[in-house]
Amino acid sequence: MGIFDKMFGRGADNAHKQPGAEQKFNQLKQKYQTVLNSIEQQHVQLQNLHVEGDKLVIRGVAPSDQAKNAVWDQIKLVDPSASDLIADITVQPQQAAAVGSPGGRPGGQAYTVKSGDTLSKISQQFYGSANEYMRIFYANRDKLSDPDKIQVGQQLVIPPDENP
Predict the structure, then answer these.
(1) Are the CB atoms for 86 and 56 separated by under 8 Å?
(2) Domain boundary among 75, 96, 117
(3) Residue 67 and residue 39: Cα distance in Å, rounded?
């Protein structure tokens, strides 16, 4: 499983209900694959990745203006009009100071994995939706290589719920 294989974030539940949403998601994901690669390389913390109508929705928090601009430069290379994309990439000022620290994600809450936990269960607990689990995964990419492989005792950062 690739890390961008599934839709997640606010709106993903509704997206799954749209006819042909999965096919449209895969088409747009393929078109914007270099943008998704740039997001990963720039350590942008993704909060949403899904389709809304005929558009790919990407929402995330970049660690710096430079990282945000690199993502936007890649978007412009793929499609200057970005007519089938909704991209909301923000920069949190306090994150700029944490760029050099491994896994430094200010504003998050620490959580210790317990027996029986999954990222979906933790997501349900903190966000009220199991489908938000990829937000937790992206916030902890320095510790996790697969969203299905967490270990008891592991310390995770839970990003704040910015859309209560």
Answers:
(1) yes
(2) 96
(3) 8
Report d(CA 26, CA 33) in Å as an integer.
10
Give the chain's radius of gyration (CA, Å).
15
Compute the half-sphere exposure of residue 85: CA atoms within 13 Å on the CB side of its CA.
Answer: 24
Q: Tell whether 74 and 129 lie within a shared domain.
A: no
In this prediction, residue 16 carries a pLDDT of: 67
Task: At 95, list the tokens.
Answer: 């994150």
Within 7-62, strands assigned E span: 45-52, 55-62
Residues 16 and 87 in one domain: yes
Written as six digits, the tokens of 23 are 């096919």
On whether residue 138 sits in a domain, the answer given is yes
* CA distance linking residue 100 with residue 153, whole number of Å: 25
Residue 101: what pLDDT?
Answer: 38
The answer for residues whose C-beta is within 8 angstroms of residue 22's C-beta and 6 or more apart is 7, 16
Same domain, 72 and 131: no
What is the reported pLDDT for 96?
A: 41
**Encoding tokens for residue 129?**
């939706």
| Residues of the chain where predicted confidence (pLDDT) is lower than 70 | 1-5, 8, 16, 93-107, 162-164
Distance CA 16, CA 20 (A): 9
Tell me, yes or no, whether 117 and 47 share the same domain: no
